[in-house]
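Dear Dr. H.,

I hope your travels went smoothly. While you were away I took the liberty of generating a structure for the chain from your last submission, since the lab meeting agenda had it listed for discussion. I wanted you to have the full record in hand beforehand rather than looking at slides cold. The sequence, exactly as received, is reproduced here:
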Amino acid sequence: MADLRPNSIDAIGERLRLIRIAYGILNGHNDELSQVDFAQLCGISRQMWNNAERKRARLGLDNAMLLRERTGATLDYIYEGDRRGLPLALALEIEKLEKTEKHTLKRA
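The corresponding predicted structure, in token form, is as follows:
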């Protein structure tokens, strides 16, 4: 069972996945931006990104700061889920993804 406290590894990993997908959409990628491509774009090792997004390890502060520099995703959002400081376009795209996924889950 997933631990979805805002600062849990599960919740952080889910937000990292949403950031990756939303960033790709906002930057015109036709297909979902892969973990490998996104990690490279942010200057984070592929293995570290994969472990964090797959909820095997918490993304370290230095890597979170690299992610923030590239995408604008705040540390408050990454670690606590607080959207207030996110760039508007990123926040709206993440919200759309969440609504779509919730709708898809309800239909399943």
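Two observations you may find useful: The mean pLDDT is 92. Residues 36 and 46 are 5 Å apart (CA to CA).

With kind regards,
E. W.
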